[in-house]
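Replying to the earlier thread about multi-chain prediction with a worked example.

Input:
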Amino acid sequence: MVNWHRLANPTSFLKWSRRVLPWASVTTVILLAAGLYLSLFVAPPDYQQGETVRIMFVHVPSAWMALFTYAVMAGASATGLIWKSPLSHLTAKAAAPIGASFTLLALVTGALWGQPMWGTWWVWDARLTSVLILFFLYLGYIALWEAIDDYTRAAKSTAILALVGVVNIPIIKFSVDWWNTLHQPASVLRMDGPSIHPSLLVPLLVMGGAFTGYFIVVLLIRLEREILARQAQVLRRAQLRS
Amino acid sequence: MEPVSEFLHMGGYALFVWPAFAVAAVVLTVLLVWSIRDLRRERDLLESLPRRRSKAQPAEAEDDS
Amino acid sequence: MTTFLQIVARDVRLAFRQGGATMLVVVFFVLAVALFPLGVGPETAVLRRIAPGVIWVAALLAAMLSLDRLFQVDFEDGSLDQLALAPLPLELVAAAKCLAHWLSTGLPLVVISPLLGVLLELNGEAHAALLLAMAAGTPALSLVGGIGAALTVSIRRGGVLLSLLVLPLYIPVLIFGTGAIDAAAMGLEGGAHLLVLAALLAAALPLAPWAIAGALRLNLE
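Result:
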């Protein structure tokens, strides 16, 4: 059993993290190799979309991770505000660039899928629009961290922003969905078929696993960096005082 | 058509399928490399700081407000 | 309660005096809307079609313009510290500041908006919807914007950052505000949109002052 309480202590967390990292990396590489093999060689071309359906195997996991990362960020922000654990704020900070990258990927691969399927790089489809807004939320969060010099103030301010964002995401999603049904051009093909065939679902899930593994690996690396940076900051200040 | 070139051809959609995978590879690799580089830099920086209080671990990032 | 009203009255007075925020915001609003016919051409059909969106986008930007000074002036001259020590909870101080912001910028926008409807040749039924939607939507803008203003209060030149934080959160108000006017312009029942706008306001009313007070406390510690 992992002793969660001890993990909240940065030093013991680093020990744990350095033990876990190799295993997480190996698992991610294996999942990624399997996922790429399944999605490029095994999965059959779709009868409607042809080979472009393979774009789904990077697009959909990216979109999943874009949302999942925000959930991690908001959860970490909430625990940071409530229990004042220093590690939580750093986790949220470390996660943000990963989430922004996944969101960017979801947008770019969505455009690359849209061009052959819809005949245009971009449509103001409800999902694409929501993901675009999510991207701006990430950028705002990262920019606020950068803008405030004092660590404690930055940590708490960004935590409040992340929580305000998480309250707003369902509202934004709802309004964009609703807006889209009004303005949806009739010719647009729906991206989501009636139900997804297992021959596509299995590669999709494996790729989803690989992306999750990648998230964990990069999160641990970035988190260690944030912890060390914070230690250096505290150390420097202590030396200045003495 | 040869199997390899047929595979690369992607049923005529090569121009979209491969860039999608390539973009994903590039973005995820760049983020990983950046993260590792930042970590290395931070480690070196921490090493270079003279540790006067060698025993006291400054690990607990106490709230300083 | 008297403290609450004092804060509101003081802020409103400051905004109206000084040749201050109110005048600038209204001029900006009218000017921004007036640029559109010059950009897209004077065709009635086109203007009428884009009028709701144009007016709302201009309203979002106008409301945002005056946000960065919402708490910053008080923060810099120390009166925010005094307000925090007042018997009134900081949440209510935040609500008072947002109310004052709405009275001094949101309400003038509501009042001037029929004129812009006329400029963009909005038809008769849509005018009532425009007024109602603006009346229900602009208070939400002041409340949500207040969160951004509180988070960036200690940041010098935080204006651009503030817009990055606040504009995505304004999107639901934009969508439903525009929707209400669009529906009325097409002769449909726009009541549902107005109800959603009212619901957004009802949700922001307790939550935003709470978040604002939290953000302000960080900066006062």
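The interface with chain B takes residues 221 of chain C (CB under 8 Å).

Feel free to reuse this layout for your own posts.
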